[in-house]
Amino acid sequence: MLDQQFHEAVTRAALDHARDLLPSAAGQGGRPHRELMREAKVLLSVIAADVPVERGPFLAAARSRLDALRSLQAATGLFAGGDNLQSPPDSAFTINDACDAYALLGPLAGDPEIDDVRSRIAAIIHATTEPLLHGGVHTPNHRWEISAALARIHRSFPDARLVARAQEWLAEGVDVDADGFYSERSPNYAAYVSNPSLTVLADILNRSELWEIVLRNLEATLGLLRPDGTVETVQSRRQDQNAPFPLAPYLSAFRAAAVATGRGDFADAARRAALPGVHDPELLAQTLLRPQLLEQLPEPIARAQAASTYFPAVALASRVSPIAETVLYGGSDYAARGRIRSGLANNPTFCRVFAGDAVLDSVRLSRAFFDLGPFRASTLRRLGDDVYLLEETIDAAYYQPLGPSDRRADGLYDLVDDGRFSASMSFQNRHRDVVRMTTAIEAALVPDGVDLRVRIDSPELPWSLEFGFREGGAVVGGVREPDGTWVLPAGEGEYRVGGSRIAVRLDGAALSQSPLPYEPGQDYGFLGATDAVDGVRVRLGGTAPTEFAVHIRAEREDVR
User: Fold this and answer.
1) Is residue 417, in this structure, part of any structural domain at all?
2) Residue 542 falls within a domain, yes or no?
3) What pLDDT, on a 0 to 100 scale, did the predictor assign at position 83?
4) Would you say 139 and 89 are in contact if contact means Cβ atoms under 8 Å apart?
């Protein structure tokens, strides 16, 4: 049965956006290729959906964008522009939209105006086919995006070579772990690239096992849904690891999954994704190509009000109760790689708490240990029901003189990176005097927050805990520093927003009245940068070695 309300919403979103594009029917030169094709697709989806509008202006606006897009194709057929020069995968994003636009207009073929537009799209696709057939990639998700483009081209312009190449990429195996996460662990790339690409490949290539992978990822995503309408990103290895990611981009995927499986938890996720309203103008095109998206959802089944989730493969755990939702994370790549890098999980946030309007976005632990930065747990082990252990061991070294056989008369030794810095010292040939620090945090998730027991085994050094709260509330029990951060001199305080509060209390450690500021570490400091969180930052600290407990508790007036 048709979901008339959803149908009207996606049509309205596309039409409203398309109308906004009409005044700029000309002068599209120099704009990014992906934007041009997305806008053209939205304009053409309104025509393909037979929305009662005067189609002339919409077709003219689409043609102007297609002509500008054609002018951006280099001699290779790939699109110019962007930081990835002559990029097959970046071009694939645009070609995927071009192929969908071409398919949308298929039922209207024979109309001279429509055929003219389709011929322009076909010229763009044909010019890019060979470079996509032979081109390479440089990130995991690019394999599925470029394979989806090859499959889509084959859908409209059959060519066995395209299928063979897509199958070659797929033969590498889809990078999904036991928990259902793709190797990049990124909600952004799952929502926009991997899931839609694998869905198309499943349909066109008749590979149902790819759809099963999408379902596994969506099932994992259910455990990442936060009460503020976002999807957890702290575990990501991509750019979204330091920013909230909205649930809305998952709307079509959860709708498709709910309709296909009849699962109420998928339906509930789709319902939540649509709560801000349906504003994505590209959804209309998706529903035209996948009409099942317009079917009525099964009865939603909300997540249990006392549920725990544990993803050992990505070291992520959470507990949900009517009062609070608490998240633990210990899956940093820093310990294994020893560096901050695009494509690695670098976020040092190890705990988050949601309590109504009060949100503790980040808990971080800094130590002044050879400028190696904050605590980044490399493991999260479950000790019992809702009890976990996060651990990290890091070290630095002082180097002894070279032995006689390794000395050089000219004093010119190998330039080597020792993990903290580089020097012409042939570090690999020297004995090391190691200085080591081990940090362990036992975390017990309770219905109204979390109890942390922190142990730092190290030489004498300062440490600080930083609590990053979402803006909009007031700190109680703190002293504001000149830099705008807050200190809790008595080791306790709270953050209040309306009828919600999150309280912090430390036991068992002597506190400094001027605790260590947040230390991003030399990977950022060398560049004059930082990964400090935004919002209201509150800290307390002391001196290690030490062991102490921190109790984080939430209260809400709307939950008694």
Assistant:
1) no
2) yes
3) 61
4) yes
Query: Is residue 545 reached through a cis peptide bond, with omega within 30 degrees of 0 on the bond before it?
Result: yes
Looking at the fold, whether 380 and 477 belong to one and the same domain comes out as: yes
Find the helix or strand (DSSP H, E) in which 463 lies: strand 449-469
User: Residue 436: CA atoms inside 13 Å, Cβ hemisphere, count?
Assistant: 6
Write out the DSSP string of 152-210. HHHHHS--HHHHHHHHHHHTT---B-TTS-BTT--HHHIIIIIHHHHHHHHHHHT-HHH
Give strand ranges (E) for 17-168.
none
The tokens for 61 are 């606006």
- Write the CATH number for 493: 2.70.98
**Residue 207 contacts residue 154 (beta carbons within 8 Å):** no
Distance in angstroms (rounded) separating the CA atoms of residues 198 and 145: 8
Q: Do 337 and 279 belong together in one domain?
A: no
Burial class (CB in 10 A: 0-12, 13-18, 19+), 253: buried
Same domain, 347 and 234: no
Span of 47-51, 397-401, 519-523, 546-550 with lowest mean pLDDT: 519-523
Strand partners, 326: 319, 353
Provide the whole-model pTM.
Answer: 0.93
Say which residues have a Cβ less than 8 Å from residue 484's Cβ, sequence separation at least 6: 537
By mean pLDDT, which of 139-153, 245-259, 335-349, 385-399 is the weakest? 335-349
Number of domains forming the structure of the chain: 2
Give yes or no: residues 311 and 283 share one domain. no
Distance CA 318, CA 336 (A): 24
Buried b or exposed e, range 91-129, using 16+ CB within 10 angstroms? bbbbbbbbbbbbbbbeebeeeeebeebbebbbebbebbb
Q: Which two tokens stand for residue 145?
A: 């995006």
